[in-house]
Write a structure and sequence with these properties.
By secondary structure, this protein is mainly α. 21% of the residues lie in helices and 0% in strands.
Length: 84
């Protein structure tokens, strides 16, 4: 038996070609924490709500840069889902 303490990025490893197993090969036994996410902008940004941000991001000439924890991270996936 093996016990793993991991973050949600474990679920992406197979899809990135970094592991020969998937999350379906594991049985969760406990959740130790939850990592809430947020969308944060500079204090002088023109948006004060997520609705304003998304409306501007949908414009054809939008030039919005996003920072996250890196390719394949849960926060990268969250940013990609928001972009979608």
């Amino acid at each position: 038996y093996k016990l793993v303490l991991s973050s949600s990025e474990l679920t992406f490893l197979n899809y990135l070609g970094l592991a020969k197993f998937t999350y379906q090969d594991l049985i969760p036994v406990a959740r130790l924490n939850a990592d809430p996410a947020t969308v944060a902008v500079r204090a002088d940004a023109p948006w004060t709500t997520i609705e304003q941000f998304v409306a501007d991001a949908r414009k054809p000439d939008a030039n919005i840069r996003v920072g996250n924890a890196g390719q394949g991270s849960a926060w990268h996936m969250a940013a990609a889902a928001l972009a979608d």
